[in-house]
Inverse folding.
């Protein structure tokens, strides 16, 4: 016996997901079935769920970049610095790079 699950979603989300799954060679119903199967197999969500964290290393204006460089130079002359390996390790851990 098969059970039915009804889910209400925004019309635009339904249209977009239908197109996406069609392009992937399946349909929305099958994709939902795959999601449920993988959730049970993983004993949880089959993908990582996390809050989006703002990345401070995103592109910035030239003026802001120059200000940050000047502060960095001033700090370095006073002995306030880290080795590159430590910074890269921190960035990878914090931002998933």
């Amino acid at each position: 016996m098969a059970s039915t699950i009804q889910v209400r979603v925004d019309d635009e989300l339904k249209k977009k997901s239908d197109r996406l799954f069609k392009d992937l060679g399946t349909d929305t119903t099958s994709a939902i079935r795959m999601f449920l199967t993988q959730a049970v197999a993983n004993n949880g969500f089959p993908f990582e769920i996390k809050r989006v964290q703002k990345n401070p290393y995103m592109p910035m204006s030239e003026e802001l970049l120059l200000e940050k460089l000047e502060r960095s130079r001033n700090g370095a002359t006073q002995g306030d610095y880290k080795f590159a390996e430590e910074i890269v390790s921190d960035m990878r851990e914090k931002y998933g790079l």
